[in-house]
Design brief:
Strand content: 15-25%
Largest sheet: 8 strands, antiparallel
Number of strands: 25
InterPro entries: FAD/NAD-bd_sf, GMC_OxRdtase, GMC_OxRdtase_N, GMC_OxRtase_C
CATH architecture of the largest domain: 3-Layer(bba) Sandwich
Family: Belongs to the GMC oxidoreductase family.
Shape: globular
Structural class: alpha+beta
Keywords: Membrane, Transmembrane, Transmembrane helix
Radius of gyration: 24 Å
Pfam families: GMC_oxred_C, GMC_oxred_N
CATH topology of the largest domain: FAD/NAD(P)-binding domain
Length: about 625
Amino acid sequence: MIPAWLVTVPTTALLFLFYVTFYHDMEFAMWMYRPDIVDANGRVRDLQELGRHFRDGYDFIVVGAGTAGCVVANRLSEVKGWKVLLLEAGRDETVVGEVPAMMTTYQTTTTDWMYKTEPDPGYCRGIDDGRCIWRSGKVLGGTSTMSAMVYTRGNKRDYDKWKCMGNDGWSYKDVLPYFKKSEDMRIDGLRDSPYHGIGGYVTLEEYRYYSPLIKYLFKGIEELGYTLRDINGESQNGFMHSYGTLRNGFRCSTAKAFLRPVRDRPNLDVSLESHVESVIIDPLSKTAGEVVFVKRGYRYHVSVHKEVIISAGVINSPQILMLSGVGPAKHLKELGIYPVISDLKVGDNLQDNICASGIVYTVDAPVGTTLLNFLSFSGLSDMLFNSNGTLMGIPAAHGVGFQSSSIADSPDYPDIKHYLAPMAENTEGGVIFKYMNRFTDSFYNKVYKPIAFKDSFMTWSCLMRPKSRGYLRLRSRNSTLHPMIYPKYMTHPDDVKVLVEAARFSGKLSKTFALRKIGAKLNPNKFLGCEHLEMMSDEYLECSLRTYLMSLWQFAGTCKMGPATDPDAVVDPRLRVYGVRGLRVADASIMPNIITGGTYAPCIMIGEKVSDMIKDDWHQHFYNQSFSG
């Protein structure tokens, strides 16, 4: 008999209790039955005896063990005579986070920086406080540890444009070898592709679970005339079943890929829970000399003999630079940061891939898209004992593809990306997505609650090359306070035009024979604040975008790469910070323009490429020294 008190508990609360219980049951079961995934003996060791190790300093200090930083630490420590320190503000990866479907468990926890943008009436009206939520990994592996793992490199023209902007060495021809270098492609039919590599640190596989709904979505895609192809190959226009950075079906972050195999190198130290405050730069020689960080309440100064490589991400990298006296002089002086070592436009040129999302289509056929279909104990058993089942897929992106809008530069240069999602904001009843995205109660209850738990699909239809530019600034000299983020979404009219066009894609898909066959219907509940507008009109879609748009959390551009003639450049084409010796930046912040795809794969490439640049520069330095005396 059900206790009377339990009947009065809201369904959402019960489901949340189930979700939490399921998480802990899974964690316990993985420790019991999957020691290969737990990998307790193979994980990275945290540096403990700090004083003894720090006494003599390091040749290189890498700030941030994120997507690119793990790559840099591995590659630099390949040189036996170089001593390398890798500093990470977060902790080690969790066990449950290795399971693809559990990617959301990293979000809104201590492993997430949990950034928020400053309020703006032009967007995020349906989010608490009107502040968009920005996720970023505060954990070993960075955002590669909490992302959906989907592997997309961008378009050839993106990199050729970088070169045309004066960034020699960054054309597609230049960067392709670095993409291939990191890869261990394990998908049949792609292993022999000239666009992929084998034997690298990062394993690429297909997911081990795709929703039954995906076959209907792909039939609809083909009805609309799109080609199915490898979008990381010869051409990008078209669709494919998503594949990602996976190993034997489980997550393969850059920490797992690049750090665990080299954890015993005597010249590589990794210090976790190490929050970097600044880089000490000598004001006379303008040379980076020390890194200051706090670990478990103690502050440390560590000297560097050759270089500091900041790889802390699009928000933290400019924050660290500005706190070190590198950035817009007027802003730094207003905060009392002296001396200003180099007056650069740090924090400008902020870009983000944003998506028309939340426009839901319900289906009549029971195709297993609800929360309990994914989080089932049969799925847990399949994962534990067979490495397959519902937990081995990601809810948000079972398919991915690109199309060109009506104002794209070229039919061969798509500017819209679509994720095919056989799960939506309503299918889990507000347990995950409402909390994760911080929807207001009024917005969620009006739009999604009436269709809660119904089998549904949607697309995340995303703007790839935004023309709007935002910026960030320090909130104070306190390094623990997040910067003020002003993304300035949709301030350029072309961005609105492309997003409205992108938002129509799921409607076209729903009208195909394949989707009509299973009763695809548009959610009739209009977005809050848009009730007076005709459903799916241009005006309605723009209103819906300003109520709720989805960030892919793929930010770029705040430490722009460019030649010395570019007044907006922060780093040169070898990623050296202008006006400072011994200081580089290596992450998505150096991108002059965001690429047409995810930033995950390009950040691995950036880590590979900058490592070779550093090796080349210092080997050339030694060569010149040996012949100068």
